[in-house]
Amino acid sequence: MIEVKNLTKRYGNHLAVDHLNFTVESGKIYGFLGPNGAGKSTTMNIMTGYLGATEGQVLIDGHDILKEPEEAKKNIGYLPEIPPLYMEMTVREYLEFAAELKGIKKDKREPQIEEVIRLAKLRDVENRLIQNLSKGYKQRVGLAQAVLGFPEIIILDEPTVGLDPKQIIEIRELIRKLAKKHTVILSSHILAEVREVCDYIMIISGGKLVASDTTENLENMMSGKGQIEVEAKASRDEMDHIIRRTGKIKEVKYRTSASGITTAQIIAKGGEDIREELFLAFSHADVPMLTLNQSKTTLEEIFLELTQGSGNRMIKEEK
Ligand SMILES: Nc1ncnc2c1ncn2[C@@H]1O[C@H](COP(=O)(O)OP(=O)(O)OP(=O)(O)O)[C@@H](O)[C@H]1O
């Protein structure tokens, strides 16, 4: 388990990470999502002990990453945004070197290297120089290095950046495989990636955590606040009369087409789903509805809303 408490990082006057608080539980895939410059890499570098914090604390299974780095780091494997590879080594030599650096006992090194070569599908290139590998393979070598020692937590900074679509699919498959036995935290600025791979999403913007929930809950949380759209063959005034009879309307906008069909976009008080009440009101007035839909806010819209200007709303409303 990782506990991040009040984590703050300043670069001179610039506040890159602004009092972050969150907990990462075991056995899930977490996605750290945010636009460029949001503070993802800085946070990951602090969580893995590569960078000191200005304020706050990171505990890995109860061990402070700065005060007890050896204990804390035992439980973490890290693939930074730019993998720390030695270009003049072969894949195998590099993994042997990494195993030694990680303090893996001699008799365990060989079987573990074999295991990560198998996992990351590096068999064909194990004796090739790293400098001659494609970007996708280099990334897999970086991942294999992060997995060596089979730490409880694996942290990956933008693991698919710069890869081609086939390589992206392969890396995502590998991440899913890893997640069966490990907690995985990955950062990305690509929403589709985080949605596809992660169980849990943390959205970071301007160094602040602006949302933190399961993908499903994030979408549901906003869908309750979504609009309801009704179409009926009636005038705007008729529609307004019927709709307001529910007594639950916060806001409504109308659009009437040349064919005499009026569309109402409704937001109910408290974001309530009032489709049943609307149906009954129209039925009572003998005005047949043509459509009745609740429009769901997409994760893209949530992401944009939270990371552009109006940010922080979701968290504030929760408190
Ligand atoms: N060493 C540094 N010195 C000064 N400012 C820095 C340094 N490293 C990062 N920053 C700034 O801190 C902010 C957060 O950067 P960070 O790299 O953590 O963001 P990020 O979310 O990982 O973005 P990206 O996806 O572009 O890597 C940015 O404004 C960046 O310019």
TrEMBL record:
Organism of origin: Dorea longicatena
Write down what this protein is called: ABC transporter ATP-binding protein
Query: What would you give as a GO molecular function for this chain, any one?
Result: ATP hydrolysis activity
Family statement: Belongs to the ABC transporter superfamily.
Give the keywords, sorted: ATP-binding, Nucleotide-binding, Transport
Is ATP-binding among the key words of this record? yes
- Entry's Pfam families? ABC_tran (PF00005)
Flavoprotein keyword on record: no
Coiled-coil region: none
Domain (ABC transporter) spans: 2-231
User: Which SUPFAM superfamilies does its entry note?
Assistant: P-loop containing nucleoside triphosphate hydrolases
